Amino acid sequence: MTDKKAQDLKRAEENQKKQSKETMSFNRFLLFRYVVAFLFFLNIYWLVLLIFVHQWTLFFPVVLILAILPVIWEHFKKLHDTSNKLPLSKAYFWLQLVVNVGLLVICATPLFTSFYPFMSAKGKTLIIALLAVGILLCLYMERRINQIENDRDRYLKRMQEYNDAIDR
Fold this sequence. Notes:
By secondary structure, the protein is mostly helical. The protein has helices spanning 2-27, 30-52, 59-77, 87-106, 112-115, 124-149, 154-167. α3 (59-77) runs antiparallel to α4 (87-106). The chain crosses the membrane at residues 31-52, 58-76, 97-119, 125-142.
């Protein structure tokens, strides 16, 4: 009986180490999940406002929302997938970046009212600020993806130190 308990204890300890390593790996992508959630809800909000004014430009937030769904799935899978590749995230952040730059250009044209009919001329500053924040976030996320895919991120070093410590 003692031998069985020792085996169970060892198995439980191994499972705990494995789960701990998976959690550390999953946390490596935590910032991506927050940024994706921010962009998802920002696009949802934009879509809802365009629906209420029956504007044809609602196509743009719909496309962005549909494009982000596979990215959400990609991040969900990271709990058990320890690879450092984020191909869907990379593609989405480029798409969001291009759309935001295009929308920033549109802010200087009369088309502004087609894309943001719910905003007055005073609200244009808020839209420009949100687009600029979105552009900066997308650029930063692309940089982080590049660092992670090339194993040059700071979190990897901490992860390796932690793995070494629990494997002793």
